[in-house]
Amino acid sequence: MKVEGKARIWKNYQKEIPDNDFFYVRSCVRQNFFPGAETTFLRIMKDELGINVYDDPAHTSCTGIGYHADIVPFDTTMTVVARQFALMTEKGFKNMIPSCITSFGLYTEILETWEHHPEVLEKARKYLKEATGRTFEIPENLSHASDVIFKFRHKIAERAKYKLINKYTGKPLRVVEHIGCHYAKMFPSKGVGGAEYPYVLTGMVESFGGEIVDYPERRSCCGFGFRQYLVMANRGYTIANTKKKFDSMDPYKPDCIVTNCPGCPMFLDKGQYAIAELEGRVYGDGKYGIPVLTFEELAGIVLGYDPWDIGLQVHQIPVEPLLDKIGVEYDKSAKYKGIGGRDLGKPQHSKLIKAYIE
Amino acid sequence: MGALYDELAKDIHLQEGLNACINCGTCTAICPAAGFYNYDPRQIADIVQQQDDKQIEELLKSETIWYCGECMSCKTRCPRNNTPGQIIIALRSYAQEHGYFTQSEKGRQQIYLKRTVGQWILDHGYCLYLEGVGTDNHPEQGTIWDWRQDNWTETMDRLGANYQKAGAGAMRKIPEEALEEVRKIFEVTGGMERFRKIEEYSAQKASEMGLEDEEYVKEVYTTNSSQDNK
Ligand code: SF4
Ligand code: SF4
After folding, report:
1. Are B195 and B147 part of one and the same domain?
2. Mind telling me how many Å the CA of A41 is from chain B's nearest CA?
3. Domains, chain A, ordered by start
């Protein structure tokens, strides 16, 4: 069969993704904002796929946000990353999977730098030895956590309880995918499908029964910009860029957004709230907004996991309209409960973006 | 061509990020910062490639170099394989190493980033450590965030995290030996030195502005004179 057009181009960007034995490094952003997503990822790896993933208590932040906020020099960052490689080596692993896209991009950048400048690698070895006494091997494979879900998407689809089909219309749900700038814009050959036709999330969504929405600002940044978001005085940058994406996608009536990077879902979720508060504009149906998911949450939903185990209750934009379209069964009264049904009170709700459950 | 450029050119980000710029403006067309600020990455690449110390020094003192969001969208598109975002990293490093950063409103913000993200890394081993970081400083975080702040540990527990506890898991307490190693790495590789410089230059600037430490940090966090907003 002759492969044409987009399909031909993205075939050039099929990356090697191992099928077992991963050393997992967590994301600072995901742990703070979406801890349930990482829990869900590990659950899928273990319970659904039987994959060996090691979660080392002694690993730390890669310092990536500090590096891209320019307070942490490259030599420091690369040596902290070298320490993660040392932990991986000591535990007998060769495949590393970061949960974070900033980490994934940074690890890739460091590995490329070491390849082009062996003297920098030597410097990293020297620094690490001096600071910690540790030595390290370079990982044989670096994949993002989403790459692994992508690799096993058909297997997940086989085990799935739900499909991304609108139960009221019988049509595929329309999904916006957002892969995050540092996944493939810096090193296109390291991301599934490259920077032009990234396929990592598209592949997942298609295998789970949904349909991808193409729209003009599909590849533009969520607005984070590191220092631009972190400092209040600059935050207009973030919200303006988030708004640019929503204004562009809204006419295509997406049912939800799925994201790759841990930061993007935070900006796309809370950004809708902030835009509503600032301008009175509510995207989507004009009532609830457009639900935003991480890729782990998406996989967890189709596998039939309890939405409150996955962590969908910590999203500002209610996810229930999407759950209802898919036909997910869930217990409304359990949404804001702690372990064992403990009462944690209830959040206040925005006046503009309606609460689905009061 | 000048001592300043020669020093800057030692930075690997500049070596990797700048070949010959043909001034095509493709980077500017795709740049999210250029959509929001009067900011032009093409110009950054062009000024630096001219190797004129005087102009580079102006850049180091300017607001301009602080507008980039380091999204690296420019890397994908440049027909000459330049990365203005990488050139920016080199300029920002230089501006901090040599004290230029306190001469601009945006540059002065580095003290806030150092005291938050930098301190969280050293104290906890995380770039973000958000218990207690509420909607007063982050109103956009919204109402669910308020609820989470009120129930931080309980929601962490509910979602399978291992908050502040020993062992593996999300938001675990990172062992003290691991934190000690990270701090040692910062000491050995110049990370601590960068932090010290940010503190020293900021203290000088605060006293020049007649502000107490706390007032200064608040001032840099909130002041936005919007001079280059589109
Ligand atoms: S890295 Fe900076 S200069 Fe390049 S596109 Fe992003 S914001 Fe613009
Ligand atoms: S895209 Fe590249 S060559 Fe064109 S102006 Fe920007 S840096 Fe220069």
Report:
1. no
2. 11
3. 22-145 (1.20.1050.140), 153-341 (3.40.50.11810)
Condensed to tens digits (0 to 9), the pLDDT of residues A105-152 reads 999 999 999 999 999 999 999 999 999 999 999 999 999 999 999 999
In A, residues 223-242, which contact B (CB 8 Å cutoff)?
Answer: 223-228, 230-237, 239-241
Closest approach atom of ligand 1 to CA B33:
7
Interface pTM, i.e. ipTM = 0.97
- The fraction of chain B above a pLDDT of 70, given in percent, is 100
As a whole number of angstroms, the distance between CA B160 and CA A314 comes to 13
What is the residue-averaged pLDDT of chain A? 94
- Measured from the CB, is residue B87 less than 6 Å from ligand 2? no
| Number of domains forming the structure of chain B | 3
Q: What is the mean pLDDT of residues A162-175?
A: 98
Ligand 1 centre to CA of B31 (Å) is 5
pLDDT at A14 over 80: no
State if residue B86 touches ligand 2 by the CB under 6 angstroms criterion.
Answer: no
Domain termination site, one of B98, B117, B151:
B98
Written as six digits, the tokens of B107 are 């540059």
Residue closest by Cα to atom 2 of ligand 1? B68
Measured from the CB, is residue B65 less than 6 Å from ligand 1? no
Phi, psi of A139 (to 5 degrees): -60, 145
Residues B69 and B112 in one domain: no
Say yes or no to pLDDT of A355 above 80: no
B203: CA distance to ligand 2 center in Å? Answer: 37
Q: For residues A70 and B93, is the Cβ–Cβ distance under 8 A?
A: yes
Residue B33 CB less than 6 A away from ligand 1: yes
3-state secondary structure A226-270: CHHHHCHHHHHHHHHHHHHHHHHHHHHCCCEEEECCCHHHHHHHH
Query: If you take atom 3 of ligand 1, which residue's CA is the nearest one?
Result: B85
> End-to-end CA distance of chain B, in Å?
34
- Give the 3-state secondary structure of residue B117: helix
Are B20 and B90 found together in one domain? yes
